[in-house]
Write a structure and sequence with these properties.
The structure holds two protein chains of two kinds. Chain A is mainly beta. In chain A, 0% of the residues lie in helices and 54% in strands. In chain A, the strands form two sheets. In chain A, strands 2, 4, 5, 6, 9, 10 and 11 form a seven-stranded mixed beta sheet that branches. Chain A has a four-stranded antiparallel beta sheet with strand order 1-3-8-7, with no helix packed on it. Chain B is mainly β. Chain B is built from no helices and twelve strands. In chain B, strands 2, 5, 6, 10, 11 and 12 form a six-stranded mixed beta sheet that branches. A four-stranded antiparallel beta sheet of chain B has the order 3-9-8-7, with no helix packed on it. In chain B, a hairpin with a 2-residue loop joins strand 7 and strand 8. The chains are: A mainly beta, B mainly beta. At the A-B interface, strand 4, strand 5, strand 9 and strand 10 of A face strand 5, strand 6 and strand 11 of B.
């Protein structure tokens, strides 16, 4: 099946530092990857859509200069939280859309990264 | 208006009984897809079942079935013979646009927490 990994699975950082989260599609190529944010006991909120080789498309209200997304290859997208603050503490989940495959399984989700900013 | 509405914040069911989780949606797009995901406490999003707007029959996947009532814009998830391992958060999601759309994203509902008791 299609597997998506995220690294790290959890991270604690100090306020003001930057954190990079990687999202990889392990056994398929993904032209499009999505980044979501989930606060405790809340739903997933789409932050941005990234396409390989082009700039990410950010959802309204998401600061592009704070959440830097790079989709360097068909199997890797990274999210960098710059100058992190405690309010950025959240669960970040990526998903990947397969290039060709069963359309009903449109997005495959990674296991998520829990970020805590102290 | 919310695109996906899940009116049940929490549901309780006894082991081996069936349970229905409600989901209504709002879209003017004639082509769309509806998804159900399970999110256990570990955080990973597990795909359960998919229903396309043009599918004539209700989707089924093992113990999961989707009660699709297009005129009422509802897509309820039915879990038969509940198991203790079914205890988790369940999210309904919608993709607007055709399956092969390169830019379609998922919109999630707020989720329903299901607790299965022995």
């Amino acid at each position: 099946g299609a597997v998506v990994s995220q690294h790290p699975s959890w991270v604690i950082c100090k306020s003001g530092t930057s954190v990079k989260i990687e999202c990889r599609s392990l056994d398929f190529q993904a032209t499009t990857m999505f980044w979501y944010r989930q606060f405790p006991k809340q739903s997933l909120m789409l932050m941005a859509t990234s396409n390989e080789g082009s700039k990410a498309t950010y959802e309204q209200g998401v600061e592009k200069d704070k959440f830097l997304i790079n989709h360097a290859s068909l199997t890797l997208s990274t999210l960098t939280v710059t100058s992190a603050h405690p309010e950025d503490s959240s669960f970040y989940i990526c998903s990947a859309r397969i290039v060709r495959g069963t359309l009903s399984y449109e997005q495959y989700f990674g296991p998520g990264t829990r970020l805590t900013v102290t | 208006a919310q695109k996906i509405t899940q009116t049940q914040p929490g549901m309780f069911v006894q082991e081996k009984e069936a349970v229905t989780l409600d989901c209504t949606y709002d879209t003017s797009d004639p082509s769309y897809g509806l998804f159900w995901y399970k999110q256990p406490s570990s955080g990973e999003m597990i795909f359960l079942i998919y229903q396309g707007s043009y599918d004539q029959q209700n989707a089924t996947e093992g113990r999961y079935s989707l009660n699709f009532q297009k005129a009422r814009k509802s897509a309820n998830l039915v879990i038969s013979a509940s198991q203790l391992g079914d205890s988790a958060m369940y999210f309904c999601a919608m993709r607007e646009g055709p399956e092969n759309s390169g830019y379609s994203t998922l919109t999630f509902g707020k989720g329903t927490m299901l607790l299965v008791s022995p």
